Amino acid sequence: MKLSVISPVYGAERLIPQLVNRISAAVTSITNDYEIILVDDCGPDNSWEAILKETQVHEKVIGIRLSRNFGQHYAITAGLDHAKGEWVVVMDCDLQDRPEEIPALYAKAIEGYDIVLARRFERKDSFLKKLFSFTFYKTLGYLTGFQQDESVANFGIYHKKVIQAVCSMRESIRYFPTMVKWVGFKATKINVEHSQREEGKSGYNLKKMLHLAMDIILAYSDKPIRLLVKLGLLVSLFSFIVAIKVLFQWLVGDIKVLGYTSLFVSIWFLSGLLLSTLGLVGLYVGKTFQGVKNRPIYIIAEKTRETI
């Protein structure tokens, strides 16, 4: 098969027909040997029923329904595991990623690239979302060492060898852009138009975004622990300098009876530092515990037809 298009679906019941029609119109300019894999991540609406209707009308459409809401990147993983195309396109279902950009992505890919990412040069998102996205990616880049362009998300085209490499990574915490960055391969970007959201609102609220950020940092970096070690060494050095100063004052007879304020502040500061360190170590241990359970990354409730 030449091309697979994967879209994780959440709260997009009314957009499914338009999504399928626009993808079909775009990819037929490339090949007629394609598939569209829609992965229902158990949203609050009737997206699965809409997917079923499309599979009855379009033989190229394949529906996969997860047993519960696992999250966007787990739904993407389910789609990747079932994709059969030599090239795989990953895009969101809300039509902010324009299917009409797929031919441009493919044209760039066949120039000799394994990965072509879509850079949204004019994002049609709110100011707060742009601000959080910028802060998130800068922090993530600093802590993980993988510099991520905040104008790039999941939308792009990937050769099957890239997808196979990503699918071989079975860790329990999934974040598709960072996984793509980690596996390497020859990559480039092209500018694409970013559309307004057709309807509804993003499934990512501030709480979910913060939770995702914490998971990714814990999964892909030990830098927070190393930063705390450095902070601990600095505090120890400062304490040593203060001790030398007090000893010198005692030797010259200039020591004064000190109050409890400095002692009180020092105890609370060090206690807070210790609790923060223990909490961070506990988070890492917790994530490791989740990983060694070896549970499946996702569970499929049903499929419209066999894909593998």
Task: Write a structural description.
This protein is α/β, with parallel strands linked by helices and 308 residues long. The chain folds into 2 domains: 3-203 and 296-303, Spore Coat Polysaccharide Biosynthesis Protein SpsA, Chain A (Alpha-Beta Complex), CATH 3.90.550; 223-292. Helices cover 49% and strands 16% of the residues. It has 10 helices and 8 strands. Strands 7-5-6-4-1-2-3-8 form an 8-stranded mixed sheet, sandwiched between helices. Helix 9 (223-251) runs antiparallel to helix 10. The longest helix has 32 residues, at 261-292. The protein is elongated and about 95 Å long. The model has no long low-confidence stretch (mean pLDDT 81).
Q: What is the terminal-to-terminal distance?
A: 12 Å
Report the sheet with the most strands, covering strand number, pairing sense and barrel closure. 8 strands, mixed
The top-level CATH class of the largest domain is Alpha Beta
Q: Could you name the CATH topology of the largest domain?
A: Spore Coat Polysaccharide Biosynthesis Protein SpsA, Chain A
Number of beta-strand segments: 8
Strand % is 15-25%
Sequence stretches where pLDDT stays below 50 over 5 or more residues: none
Q: What count of structural domains?
A: 2
CATH H-level homologous superfamily name of the largest domain: Spore Coat Polysaccharide Biosynthesis Protein SpsA, Chain A
Instruction: Give the integer mean of the pLDDT values.
Output: 81
Sum this structure up briefly.
The chain is an alpha/beta fold. It has helices at residues 16-27, 47-57, 72-82, 102-109, 127-144, 160-167, 176-183, 206-220, 223-251, 261-292; strands at 3-9, 34-40, 61-66, 87-90, 115-120, 152-159, 187-192, 300-303. The radius of gyration is 25 Å and the shape is elongated.
